[in-house]
Amino acid sequence: MSHDDDLTPEEVAKILPPGAALGWGLAKPPQRGPKREMSIDLIVEKAIEIADKDGLASVSMNRIASALGFTAMSLYRYIPSKDDLLILMQDAACDISLPAERTPQEWRESMREYVLGTVDVFRKHPWYGDIPILGIPITPNNLRIVEWALRPLRDMPLNHYEKMSIVLLLSSYARMYGMLQRDIDRAVQAGSSEEEFSGLNYSAALRYLIKPDQFPDLHPIVMSGAYTGENEDENTVGNDLDFGLDRILDGIEQFLIQKTASDAQ
Predict the structure, then answer these.
(1) Model pTM?
(2) Per the database record, which ranges form the HTH tetR-type domain (predicted)?
């Protein structure tokens, strides 16, 4: 039997990385520090402002301190390290408004909202995907997002492992597509165009270069215009995100059908 509930806040704080402990409000406030207004939230807010504008590489304790009118050392009294700051920035970026809970029958719509909402985080905060994944979510807002993803699975005939595997599948897809869309946004902001990013500007050159003997399977796709999205208006499949997500949801639906049939035997 687990006795984790018997832990004190101080013991929990020692288990977690300092940044996560700060996110849960488990760390003690500094005994000494600037007399003027200063807080963890203010530091994180300024760090996100800098990252949104100039990228993650531009975030440093020195720059944040300078922007706030303090010394870097005064910031370290609140947040022990740059790594801890990144944990807090990630968690703050996930502090988003969640849609109202849907009925169990609308589970596909619920999962779609989760994926699209996650993609939006990557687009709103392009630096978010630049922070490497170092482990499972353990901060409050990140876990709130996990809770959101678990909503439509609540009454499904799934065990805990299957539920978390589905959440991982959906979040991985959202992360992949969110980073792709983020890169498109960055390219356009840098002076490129969506047509150039998709290869539409190179359609004629590709039709010349892609020969059927060398690329027997790619050749007809290039010639049709599907490779660069030339005939997008005639495409009955829809956009890439929706098409891929629908296939994932179809797979989950089939798994549920098989699982229900197996349990009934």
Answers:
(1) 0.88
(2) 37-97
